[in-house]
Amino acid sequence: MHNGQMGYWENRSSGAGNNEHTTRAFVAVGPSEAEKAARAEKVAKEKQQAEEAAKAFAAKTAAASAAAEKERQNAISAAAAAGQHQTVPDARNNLNQATAEASRLKTVADNALNTAKNKRKEAIDAVPVATQAEKKYQDLQQSIKGLTQNNNGQYGTQKWEVISSNKEHDHWGYRFYPSGITKAQVDAAQNDAVNKRNAATSLASQATAAEQASLQASAAYNAAETRRQAAQAALASAEQAAAAERKRQEAEAAAAAAAEKKRQADAAAKAAEEARAIAEKAKALQARCTAADKLKSSEIQAVRGIPATAAPFAIPLTWSTASRGGFTLSADAAASLGAFISEALATLSVAVVANPVALTIAGLVLSKSVGVGSDMVPGRDISSMMPGDAFGLPDTAALNKAADQKTSVSMPVRGRLVMNDSGILDVQLVKTNTAGAVKVARAVLDKETGYWGYTLPAVADVPAQTIFVSPADALGANGPLTLSGPVPLPERILHTGDQISAPQATDKTVTPVADDLDLDDIILVLPPESGLKPLYVMYRSPRNMPGTVSGKGQNVGNNWMGGASTGDGAPVPSQIADKLRGKTFGSFDSSRRAFW
After folding, report:
1. Residues of the signal sequence (predicted)?
2. Going by DSSP bridges, is the β-strand pair 584-585/148-149 parallel, antiparallel, or unpaired?
3. Does residue 468 contact residue 295 with C-beta atoms inside 8 Å?
4. Which of 28, 178, 271, 313 is the most exposed place for a label (fewest CB within 10 A)?
5. Is residue 215 domain-shared with residue 311, that is, in the same domain?
């Protein structure tokens, strides 16, 4: 090997006689390593190009198929929508035509694809054939390097040597040694290499053209197949539309038959619903009327609640009467009376007393017969209320706890209702030498009226009484009776100089009262959702109700008081009974004062 070239060395002579020269020449055999590498690289590149062309054709075919499928789906959707407006015969005729056209173009596309595949295979197969022919020609070229061509077109080598001899001397000359390779062989190999390379190049172009024709034929077939499937979808849609139209006509016929029946049923149902609504409204109104009448029963004392946000003496005093509702002070009357009561409570709170004393804070004028001067009648049950915070009562949480535990609250100053000798129902504040224990109770919601109620403790020989406290914003007596919310409160507003009397601001006279006080009061706690203050309630007892003296008494001696503290006590002397018999007193205390 010499310089990467396989071959051999030989000696070559030139000149003659004394001028003969011998040189050493390298005769190459076959291509060099560089030529082999270049040839291998060319073969690999040509093979790669052929394979890439085949792959590109496959990719184009797949892309064309995907695009055709997308277009096909769009066309099918559009055709399905359009088919709703076609007749079934027209749609079927379109499908037959599209099917025939698609079948024809399918055959064309298949033939074109086979042709393209065959041409590409021929082009790929032609590459190594051309390469082999070129290699053969190049090998011949390599073999004749350094050789001489004679007149016969042969390639070989010449040597200077004795070509003949005689007795006198030798004859020298060039002798030709043929290599076996002729110029005709080299030219034939060259022509064969060129022709086969041209054939390979031509086949590659033909394969590309065939592939393009195949793509076009496939596109035409895909379009035809799309039209066929679209026509098929249109036919299905047309058939569905025809079936739907038949059903629609049948349904319309049935609907027409049922329409009048439904109309009549709807009219009957509407009439029944209207009658039901009227009946329910009448029932609800009757229930509301019953609830409103409930406030006017002889067992119910209704009164307006005091808002929790009101100042302690903004609404200082109210009354609730059985069957007649509440008595509420007007703003001017409440202002003046509130100031007086505040000062009266302050006076009594600091007073130190050995025996009970009372201070009258207001009086309610009651008529002596029905319909004369007032809606009030002597003997009718009545209670009076004051806001709990006016007395400095514990907070609502403490009051609720006392109600739950059934314990009492200590009150140094309490109140009572007393009928005086003038027939006026006085509200008095009472201070005793020891604080009194007042019961605490919860009011509960009455769903009929929307008020919060509490039944007062039972008293012998007196009908049971329940106090109903309205929401602060309940409608008054003249309010409309609605179907929801609290019912209107039977209520009368008292103005200054009206049915209410009150001491002068400077008249805070404290008077002694009997030791055996009978105070009937209770602290009433309203639920938080009511938004109302706790109320201090003073209700009447039989001792404070009007009555007429009866009985004859007994003749007694000088020591008739001696048995007052034993047995049933001492009898009333007949001479005193004769003087008091038939007289009417506003309360037991009034009759006792007259007795003594």
Report:
1. none
2. unpaired
3. yes
4. 271
5. no
- Over the stretch 217-267, which tens digit does the pLDDT of each residue have? 998 988 888 888 888 888 888 888 888 888 989 999 999 999 989 999 999
Instruction: Kindly state whether residue 195 falls inside one of the protein's structural domains.
Output: yes
Q: Which pairs count as long-range contacts for 566-575, CB under 8 Å and 24+ apart, including other chains?
A: none
Buried/exposed code over 56-81 (b: 16+ C-beta within 10 A; e: otherwise): ebeeebeebeeebeeebeebbeebbe
Q: Identify the bridge partners of residue 326 per DSSP, sorted by sequence position.
A: 320, 491
Span 164-215, pLDDT tens digits: 888 888 888 888 889 899 999 999 999 999 999 999 899 989 988 998 999 8
Q: Which pTM does this prediction carry?
A: 0.52
303 vs 386: CA distance, rounded Å: 11
Quote the tokens at residue 157: 């080598």
Cα angle: 302, vertex 303, 306; to 5 degrees: 150
- Give yes or no: residues 576 and 532 share one domain: no
Count Cβ atoms below 10 Å from residue 559 Cβ, excluding itself. 8
SS3 54: helix
- 59 assigned to some structural domain: yes
- Whether the predicted pLDDT of 367 surpasses 80: no
CB 325 within 8 A of CB 489: yes
